[in-house]
Amino acid sequence: MPGVDASNGAPAILDKDGLGQLIAALRTKGYRVVGPRSADGAIVYDDIDDIEDLPAGLGDETEGGRYRLRKRTDDVLFGYTLGAQGWKRFLYPPRQRLFAARRQGAGFQVEAEEGEEAPMAFLGPRACELAAVALQARVFGDKTFPDPGYQARLAAAFVVAVECGAAASTCFCASMGTGPEVTSGHDIRLLEIKGQRFLAEAGSDRGREILTGLSLSAPTAADLKMVAAARKAARAGQGRVLDRDTAAALQSMPDHPRWDDVAARCLSCGNCTMVCPTCFCTTVEDVTDLSGDHAERWRKWDSCFSVEFSYIHGGAVRTEAKSRYRQWITHKLSTWADQFGSSGCVGCGRCITWCPVGIDITAEVAAIAATRKGTQG
């Protein structure tokens, strides 16, 4: 089949060998390639050396409080929906040393940090995950106090997005306007079609540069038909919807009786905040060695579901599960817009999947919406 000149941005077909060439090209350029692989009974995002590391023939089953890998009847490489955790931990590490200092005389001297990190290439982000990255970039891109580490990692990252060919039962990105089609935030966009073949399109100049060096072929009419069908299936297969109007109004309903109902089920474990791709709460911890000559300051992920998170001198502000869950969902869906101009939810459904008791954020909002309509009626 004739080759394709990817320099003009035209869509092309990339086969399995071509994907291997893509991974090799990124590694040659000095990128640390991170992508999906199977480990500990889940799809995780981790270092990828070559195409054999990808989870061929694996899919996933998700529901409230349930996640399972399953064998597919085909050998697709990206047949799962989402990894257990998102890409947040690479751009915004769970534990990050802010500085270290060593005693010198009567004071301390701050030690120089280690050299620059290798730039990362992300292989496989879905549309909702790229929307989450864009939201966090806004959080950490404050004009007065930007987070230099986050911004530097994001600016250096090369993104090879992979569009969803199907939806999980917990997905609702379509109702949030964040997917399932990839429209921004990528250098290359792929969509896997039958036989480990991909429709490939460049989204940036550096994406075009990489694709130009790969073995590509022109898509056939049958290929484009399969792409259209996959995109339609990914949108139509979403069984959950979030009422965005009610979600935006949650801040005006602090005394709604639904908060008591959800509090009776919530374990305050913080799973939802740990897997959420947009949550950004942290705590800071200072540590010293036993001699007192060496000190370090670390930033670590934290959760607004912990009693200690709201602790100030004299005690915690939010001592009940009711107030902590209300704080999380109200900020995520309502007051986030006051701060950052949009909802803080991208509809990935991870909080539903990884909640031990299956609390469903869309069901909670729907229950509140029902009472609102009843009151207004």
TrEMBL record:
Q: Which InterPro entries match?
A: 4Fe4S_Fe-S-bd, 4Fe4S_Fe_S_CS, Helical_ferredxn
- Drop me one GO molecular function for this one: iron-sulfur cluster binding
Every copy of the 4Fe-4S ferredoxin-type domain together lies at 255-287, 336-364
Q: List the keywords (alphabetical).
A: Iron, Iron-sulfur, Metal-binding
Q: Which domain of life is it from?
A: Bacteria
Q: Which PROSITE patterns match?
A: 4FE4S_FER_1, 4FE4S_FER_2
What name does UniProt use for this protein?
A: Sulfite reductase subunit A
Which organism's genome codes for this protein? Magnetospirillum aberrantis SpK
